[in-house]
Specification:
Rossmann fold, seven-stranded mixed beta sheet, 9 helices, two-stranded antiparallel ribbon, 266 residues, alpha/beta, binds S-adenosylmethionine
């Protein structure tokens, strides 16, 4: 498959808030947390839940059908919801934590945006970074993404102590091309079964110094207890608004970070 060619002007239209409503986003206090293992087994489009309704450009729709979603990768309905969000947010720099199939999707959205948009993905394990890079090449999208290997280490952010990616700052700055991050997708580090507890909490403190004045974030697995609790704690941070959880896949938590202390992309 070659690069997705025809740049599609993303239609101005409903705001992200409208879109979130369309996608059945529920605030945290209403977003009951079903057992996430049950969610894992659930087929796409369960009765009573709205699949994301928005139309997406034909090349993206076709990519969504052909990407090997599911398993360790984002589920297909999550990929669809993420697509809609990225189209609405129209970011210039996407930072992804945890690379894979989602990196290909985000790179395709960059290619389709008609703007100089890029995705930078942090990946803990060299073998997965290589696999993602191969996938990007296969889909002809390697020109829109940088995959950086970054170890996951015990770190302290303020009072919080836990595991976080530790990217090489010079490489990250170079990959971002001097632009601030305005969209963050959190799907790593792998926490399940590795004693890493609430490691994904570190995503916002990590991005803080690199963030634009307004950043939209999406976090996968938001119905998993530890990630649900992370969203609750993020809500307490200054400048953070958690919109809620879109009922797709294992739950896609959504929010914004504004007036970040960094707010300059370094
Ligand atoms: C949830 S996965 C990220 C998935 C990625 N966002 C996607 O959509 O394909 C989080 C991390 O788990 C690790 N990982 C990926 N596949 C794995 C596998 N089959 N077994 C164990 N760890 C895996 C990688 O380090 C990855 O960054």
């Amino acid at each position: 498959m070659t690069a997705l060619s025809t740049a599609t002007a993303f239609a101005p239209g409903p705001t992200i808030t409208d879109r979130l409503q369309d996608m059945g986003c529920r605030p945290l206090d209403e977003a009951q947390r079903p057992g996430w293992l049950a969610r894992l087994r659930a087929p796409f489009g369960r009765p009573g839940e709205k699949a994301p309704a928005a139309a997406v450009a034909a090349p993206i729709a076709s990519l969504l059908r052909s990407l090997p979603t599911g398993g360790w990768s984002i589920p297909r309905d999550t990929a669809h919801a993420l697509t809609v969000l990225v189209m609405e947010a129209a970011p210039i720099r996407i930072l992804e934590l945890g690379s894979g199939v989602s990196t290909v999707l985000l790179a395709a959205l960059c290619a389709e945006s008609g703007r100089p948009t890029r995705v930078v993905s942090l990946e803990e394990r060299p073998r997965y970074a290589e696999r993602t890079q191969r996938l990007l090449v296969t889909f002809g999208l390697d020109g829109y993404a940088s995959v950086l290997t970054a170890p996951v280490r015990l770190t302290r952010f303020g009072n919080w102590r836990g595991y976080s990616y530790e990217p090489n700052e010079t490489l990250l700055r170079r990959a971002l091309g001097g632009r601030a991050v305005d969209f963050l997708f959190v799907d790593g580090p792998a926490s399940w079964g590795r004693g890493r507890g609430d490691c994904r909490f570190s995503a916002l403190p990590l991005v803080w110094p690199w963030a634009a004045a307004r950043l939209t974030f999406a976090i996968d697995d938001a119905w998993r207890r530890r990630d649900f609790n992370i969203l609750k704690r993020w809500q307490q941070l200054p400048g953070v608004t958690v919109d809620g959880i879109i009922p797709v896949g294992r739950g896609l938590g959504i929010g914004t970070l504004t007036a970040s202390a960094g707010a300059n992309g370094r």
